[in-house]
Amino acid sequence: MVIEGLKKLSLNELFSRLHDSITALAKNVGSLTEKNRQMSLVDIIELRNHIRSKIEAHQDTIENEKILRLVELFKEDKNALELVKTDLDEWLSFLEAIKFHLEHTKDLGEEEGRELDRIKKEITQLQTVLRK
Predict the structure, then answer these.
(1) What is the dihedral of CA 7, 107, 127, 14, to 10 degrees?
(2) CB count, 10 Å around CB of 15?
(3) pLDDT tens digit string along 30-44?
(4) Among 95, 48, 118, 102, which Cα is nearest to 76's?
(5) Rounded mean pLDDT of 119-123?
(6) DSSP type of residue 2
(7) Rg (CA), the chain
(8) Span between the terminal Cα atoms of the chain, in Å
(9) C-alpha to C-alpha distance for 16 and 95, rounded to whole angstroms
């Protein structure tokens, strides 16, 4: 669903808004990754090993299995956020380059027109995937 107000914006304004949104997301993910870094991978492994030893000793098995799954989930989420942060930084660079070209290109050449058509098609395909 496209917000009606966005349809009225120029391509340059849309890229600016996209840039601002990705920048805000990057800041939020950056803040989250900083908090996640307070718990080192060594700490996570030590905690995981401690919980496993309690499970092996049959101490609060059900609760410790849940905690172990939670620790594993946190470890995976921590790694995923680091990857997302790296990608976001790259996306911001791409947007800066696109914005530069939009500001300095008056007319699209034939090749750029084809590229824009290809991007439109890929956006439509991505929207279909994301809506599922």
Answers:
(1) -40
(2) 18
(3) 888 888 888 888 998
(4) 48
(5) 74
(6) -
(7) 22
(8) 13
(9) 8
